[in-house]
Amino acid sequence: KNQVExxxxxxxxxxxxxxxLQCNYTVSPFSNLRWYKQDTGxxxxxxxxxxxxxxxxxxxxxxxxLDADTxxxxxxxxxxxxxDSASYICVVSAGPGKTGANNxxxxxxxxxxxxx
Amino acid sequence: xxxxxxxxxxxxxxxGQNVTLSCEQNLNHDAMYWxxxxxxxxxxLIYYSQIVNxxxxxxxxxxxxxxxxxKESFPLTVTSAQKNPTAFYLCASSQGQxxxxExxxxxxxxxxxx
Lengths: 116, 114
Hints:
The structure holds two protein chains of two kinds.
Chain A: E1 4-7, E2 10-14, E3 19-25, E4 30-38, E5 45-51, E6 56-59, E7 62-67, E8 72-77, E9 86-94, E10 104-106, E11 110-115
Parallel strand pairs in A: 2-11
Antiparallel strand pairs in A: 1-3, 3-8, 4-5, 4-9, 6-7, 7-8, 9-10, 9-11
Chain B: E1 4-7, E2 10-13, E3 19-25, E4 31-37, E5 44-51, E6 54-57, E7 64-66, E8 76-78, E9 87-94, E10 103-105, E11 109-113
């Protein structure tokens, strides 16, 4: 069964600290993995997208890693800011199947709260 | 200013009423999608359209209907047949027709049934 699991479910950190969010998946065949940031009451915004051959991708203070062998990804946030408070969603896309097939699998997200 | 717009931001409905959520994009994207988001759950696909005048059911299409008469517009109607419609609804679009293409999301509409 194709699944995406994220941990922890929620996380509280002090401003300026670093944190790492985890994403494990069983989606096969694998096409790409994306991390989205979703502010409360808003739509998700893409942070990174990685294909099978990519191990690391950065976007400012956000660094995503991918281990396609173990089917794990992490999102590392450096020097956290209050504006980083949001839900972070891991989304895995399966390889092209039949035309029109739904091949996108969403995690339930990690709710990050950064406190002063 | 390119992007995806959804309206209204908040919507209240009485039981038994149909309501239509608007989604417009000026990104010239081929594909558009509707998702439902509930607390503690991942996004669930309601309907998607990969080309004008064509659309497909997603995982939870019952009680919903859509149309795709124009490339830039993909409205979602929540009918009285949807038994638990209170949720946050997200519209998305992508350049290509495959789900492996990056999706761009609108700001969402929060629907509450009174």
